[in-house]
Amino acid sequence: MKLPFAPRYFVASVLLLSALTALFAVSAALQTERELSRQLQEKGLALSEALETSSRNAILSQGLVEELIGRRLLDNARLVDQLLLSRPPDPEWLHRISTENGLTRIDLLDRDGDPYTPPQRFPGTMGMMGRPPLADRMPEEHRAMMQYMWGRRWAPPAAEGDVPPAIRDQKFWKGSVFGVAVGARSFPGIIAVHADATYVLKFGKEIGVQRQIEELGHQAGIESITLLDQNLTVLAHSDPARVGQQDTDSTLGGALEGQRVLTRLVRREGAAPVYQVVRPLALEGTRRGLLKIDLSTASIDLMWRSYRIAALILGLAVLGLGTLGLAAIFYTQHRHLTEVKALEAEVERRERLSTLGNMAAAVAHEIRNPLNAISMGLQRLRVEFAPVESDEYRRLLEVAQGEVRRLNSIVEEFLSLARPLSLKPEPVQVAALLDEIAGLVENEARDARIRIERDIAAGLPVLHADRDRMNQVLLNLTLNSIQAMPDGGSLTLGAAAADGNMTLTVKDTGPGISPDLLPRVFEPYVTAKTKGLGLGLTIARRIVEAHGGRIEVDSALGRGTSFRVILPLNGAAGG
Fold first, then answer.
1. For residues 24 and 471, what is the distance between their CA atoms, to the nearest angstrom?
2. Is residue 145 located within the same domain as residue 24?
3. Which end is more exposed in the chain, N or C (fewer Cβ atoms within 10 Å of the end residue's Cβ)?
4. pLDDT computed for residue 163 by the predictor
5. Closest among 301, 294, 267 to 279, alpha carbons compared
């Protein structure tokens, strides 16, 4: 299909539009991807900050509880020591104190780490119940209070001098989760108070980091949460079975050493990719650790796929509408340029015809006077100087007069180009006009073995035109068609009315007009005939345009030629 405009410029414009659309789509896609990643990163960082804060608060709360319990146990130990200053130890009495104060047990240990057994009698001053106070017989060095604590926050005594070696070797804290020991003033040894740590451990479990990580790990969009120590050992995990395992990711070690936040997209073999946020944090004291949060990218991927589909549809729509817009612009511009070129060609043609007409009028004027003199001389020779019985003389005079008449007709054609047309519109019956034309060329058509056909629609309206001028046009077209069929053929004279116009058709079955000559058939001196000046179609076009109409031609080699004279039915302009 031939485009009504230059295809290379249109294709170049469409390619440029496609490139710009693709560039915009890619830029918007990258910006959207960065925005989605930023949102995921902010979510991970916010979650890690919240978890770090809550974990620190949990650790502080646990420590505070243990600190308070430790103080209470120390108070119990001091109370027992105070009571022992005034009474001997009694297992039932110690058991009652343990039960009333929520303790597991109270141990009295001597300096060898064995259970302390008090002596039966004491010399010297009698105390309560007839016994001397134990403080009166204790060495001064044992009256100093020495305290020890063990549990989740305190290690058992180990340094030399903290406790007598015999007591330290007995490891009196074994089997106890939480407790304290103080050096007794009431006897040479220590008082060990063991706490019922069930509620302490339960409280720690309820508010501990592991519990919080497990709860957060079950929220939507979170794949896993991991708390690692400085050796990348899992301290807490959203999957409790992972606690105690080792993480072998070397990148995490770099984040721990550099104490920097790490965000990245991790693609795992056989699993969906996750967006990972790694945050360094302080555990206890100088201990450092890492908090690793793996966020699911499913929602982001879904949004990304939806955006890509929307962007593709939008891009195709923009490209389609842009292509249609470019096509409309090119088509409008082409039509405008075609009209401009047609107007320029028409102006040029009219100027050329005007120049040619003026020149023809001057030349014709100079030729016509000598022709008139020659014509009159030939007439006198024919009448006054004719020799008797000379056929050759008469024949030569007839030839000379015929050539004079031919030259005069040529001069008339030249003058018709120069003179302004003066139309005399009148009602014309088109069918009768075409019948008249057919009658004029009937003999010539019969001699050339040409069949004349009529294709005249019924009920044609009256055409207002200059009858003589239209007769001249149609006769010229008809004679051209007859001359184009020297070997015979068919000549069709037609007429039809539509859309306020009358269309007169002269169609032949001749050899057709060559494509290189077809666009110029209405120009002066353009003809394929060996005889004639090529002014007939030029004059015919001038007459038709003077009537406000136009003349068109269709022709193809070997398929004949068709001339169409299209005239307005509302009448022709007079002049």
1. 67
2. yes
3. N
4. 58
5. 294
